[in-house]
Predict the 3D structure of the following.
Amino acid sequence: MKIAICASEVFPFAKTGGLADVTGALPLALEDLGQQVIIFMPKYQTVSSGKWPLKKEKDGLFSTSLGKNIKVYFIEHDGYFNRPGLYGEKTGDYPDNLERFAFFNKKTLDFLKEIDFKPDIIHIHDWQASLIPVYLKTVYSDNPFYKDIKSLLTIHNIGYQGLFSKDEFYKLGLDWSLFNINGLEFYNQINLLKGGIIFSDAINTVSPTYSKEIQTKEFGFGLEGVLNQKKDSLYGILNGIDYSVWNPETDQFIFKNYSAQQLDKRYENKAALQKFCNLPVKDVLLIGMVSRLAEQKGWDILGEAIDQICEYDLQLVILGTGDLKYHILLEEIQKKYPQRCAVYLKFDEVLAHRIYASSDVFLMPSRYEPCGLGQMISLKYGAVPLVFKTGGLADTISSKNGFVFDVYKKEELINKIKEALNLYRNKNRWISLVKRTFTYNFSWQESAKEYIRLYQKLICK
Ligand code: ADP
């Protein structure tokens, strides 16, 4: 099969979250299973300044390679993409995001024809690529090159839909008739993700539970109705983890490599992190977090609970960026509990690896979680996940490999932390739980096989 993947971020070229991990790892797994894959993404500043060689293919198109033979195409437009951020900066989203990503989507389709790569499947991700199926079924539908190309939209998080003022609709180059309730209109605004849902041939989310949740009012963010209408072509495929990046035995970023049989070396990582964080180097439950600082990630209840949590005999290391109010809160907490809490308000790949390799508990109390990678990574590193039972967290974590609370309240979160503290004091039981976490395998191979089955289904439709 010929597959074109189109996304606004792909690891290692640009990353703000789990989307990049998926679009960076899935192509490799597909290639290993014998598929022919190419990738399209914008040529951001991080792409131009990166350490990979860039080849100019033609005006406005650059490339590099990934895996054995995957071409990654970067679409150039310095005015739109040569900026420090992907979607915005500290002050907020870039005001021209609609134009930026409409341009990226249209150019992807144009360049497919110019490089003469006619995919069987175009696999698009999130709202930033959601105009592709819309264009395929409208503006490009008379062009024989695009006939029979099937599209799959993966929704990584339905909380982000690409909402814009209807005054910008003319910039999309689409007929006004598409601005209605059965098209891209959403409460008098443009909703790009809704366009993707309606016009793509199939949709999937990144875990089976989340694919059901988003059809409900509680989790659908207003799109539950449209998703319900398309429920026969809505699937849930759990993300995997790229174990060539996330493996404590080979990880170059951590202080000491280790396996499940070498927990003593794991403790060396813990001591080194404690030292790095200016925390007392001692045997105490260390809770780690690597997270966007957003309500979705549980910060509303965690924000309420954190003071109480820091009163316990434990240590907390938090790495994250996001909402200003949580930055302020965490700075205060760090000041108040310098012996218990270390906070790093930034994006830091190296520190993230070190936190996974050093924490006893990995905290991820997300209010909703499409899939979640943090809990799967932490299992691989022997950090026991503590999660709320939702979406992909519910599909991957149970009392066998972690701590799960199922009522979204700060009291329940605190109770689970107390449970972890108690278990930690029982060294034998704790070590057997830690050893068990290493046995879980969420490799991309299985997920990629499921994607291939879904692609095949679409082609035969
Ligand atoms: P998201 O909803 O943010 O995509 P996921 O759990 O699916 O959440 O993926 C988050 C990914 O981003 C993980 O690889 C995690 O380690 C990484 N990450 C999140 N915040 C940071 C940060 N501040 N620094 C480094 N890595 C981070």
User: Anything to note?
Assistant: The pocket of adenosine-5'-diphosphate is lined by residues 17-18, 21, 157, 290-292, 319-321, 347-349, 352, 371-374 (CB under 6 Å).
